[in-house]
Every structure is written in C-alpha cells, then in structure tokens.
Amino acid sequence: MEKTFIMVKPDGVQRGLIGEIISRFERKGFRMESGKLMTVSTELAEKHYAEHKEKPFFGELVNFITSGPVFAMVWAGEDVIATARQMMGKTNPSEAAPGTIRGDYGLTVGKNIVHGSDSPESAEREIQLWFNEEELSSYEKTI
Ligand code: CMP
C-alpha cells in the first residue's frame, strides 16, 4: 500500500486545524498509520527542506517550521501521494482551488497550513527522516 508523509505546519496547528485535516483524509478513505505533535529542530528542518537550500526563502522556511509545534503523520492508501496533493491544493493558497485545504484555509505561500510529499522518493525519504522504526505502525483494516 502506498504511503505518504503529511505535516500540519505551525500555522495549521495554531489555528486549530489538525482535526479538520485528519478528518478530510479519513473521510476520503485513507488511514493514518503514525502521527505525533512535535517541535522541529533546526537540524531536522534543514534536512527536510534540503532541496530548497539555495532558495532566497530558505531561512524563512526553516524559521517558520521551527517556530511552533507541527503535527507529523504517515498516511496510507491507494494513490495516496498524488491524491493527498490534490486535496491540499496548489502550494500558493491564492492559486489553490476552493474545496482544497489550502484553498479553504491558507493565505500566503509561506504559511500554507500543510505539507505533503510530492513523489514516492520524497515520501520514502521524509517518512524515514521524521519517524523511527518503532513509530511506524503498518496495519490492515479488519472491520
Ligand atoms: P512545502 O510543501 O512545505 O515545501 C516547500 C515550501 O516552501 C512550500 O510548502 C512553501 O510553504 C514554501 N515556499 C515556496 N515558495 C515560497 C516563497 N516564495 N516564500 C516563502 N516560502 C515559500
């Protein structure tokens, strides 16, 4: 079963949107396999955003993601990587369609509520980076 890494960013946590975001993915039919509220170290933030190291907004990105707790999750399901990205909407909330998470709740590209892996390679890398082996609980539905 495909898996992806989804994170409610500090703005989403502080605006009380953890439950809303979990609910959207649950109602879609995906299942959460791991989840934790945590404060992000600068080291983890820099590793997570390594591909943006040369971008002018890299410092801002790291400052923001370390500014308050995030809710980090692993979600599983058919085509979950691409479908979760559709459900989140475009990176810039001003371009994200209504009905998507960023379209409904986001205002700026920096504070865009939620992050989701953009490819199977990113998903694999990000899940390994954010969770250790004991925190990853794979399970099948029995009901
Ligand atoms: P995310 O999916 O977490 O991955 C990279 C993040 O960079 C992206 O969401 C945006 O929040 C952020 N980002 C992209 N472009 C800009 C920008 N021009 N200024 C600030 N942040 C940006």
From TrEMBL:
Q: What is its main location?
A: cytoplasm
Q: How does this protein assemble?
A: Homotetramer.
Q: Which family does it belong to?
A: Belongs to the NDK family.
The UniProt catalytic activity note for this protein reads: dZDP + ATP = dZTP + ADP; a ribonucleoside 5'-diphosphate + ATP = a ribonucleoside 5'-triphosphate + ADP; a 2'-deoxyribonucleoside 5'-diphosphate + ATP = a 2'-deoxyribonucleoside 5'-triphosphate + ADP
Q: Which GO terms describe its biological process?
A: CTP biosynthetic process; GTP biosynthetic process; UTP biosynthetic process
Q: Is Kinase tagged as a keyword?
A: yes
Q: Which residues form the active site?
A: H115 (pros-phosphohistidine intermediate)
Question: What are the subcellular locations of this protein?
Answer: Cytoplasm
E.C. number: 2.7.4.6
Protein name, UniProt field: Nucleoside diphosphate kinase
Its Gene Ontology cellular component terms are: cytoplasm
- Residue stretches making up the Nucleoside diphosphate kinase-like domain: 1-138
Signal peptide residue numbers: none
Q: Which residues bind ATP?
A: K9, F57, R85, T91, R102, N112
Question: Keywords assigned by UniProt?
Answer: ATP-binding, Cytoplasm, Kinase, Magnesium, Metal-binding, Nucleotide metabolism, Nucleotide-binding, Phosphoprotein, Transferase
Q: Which InterPro entries does the record match to this protein?
A: NDK-like_dom, NDK-like_dom_sf, Nucleoside_diP_kinase, Nucleoside_diP_kinase_AS
Report the gene name: ndk
Please list the cofactors this protein needs. Mg(2+)
GO MF, one annotated term: metal ion binding
Q: What does this protein do?
A: (Microbial infection) Catalyzes the phosphorylation of dZDP to dZTP, when the bacterium is infected by a phage that produces the substrate for the synthesis of dZTP (2- amino-2'-deoxyadenosine 5'-triphosphate), which is then used by the phage as a DNA polymerase substrate. Major role in the synthesis of nucleoside triphosphates other than ATP. The ATP gamma phosphate is transferred to the NDP beta phosphate via a ping-pong mechanism, using a phosphorylated active-site intermediate.
Give the PROSITE patterns listed for this entry.
Answer: NDPK, NDPK_LIKE
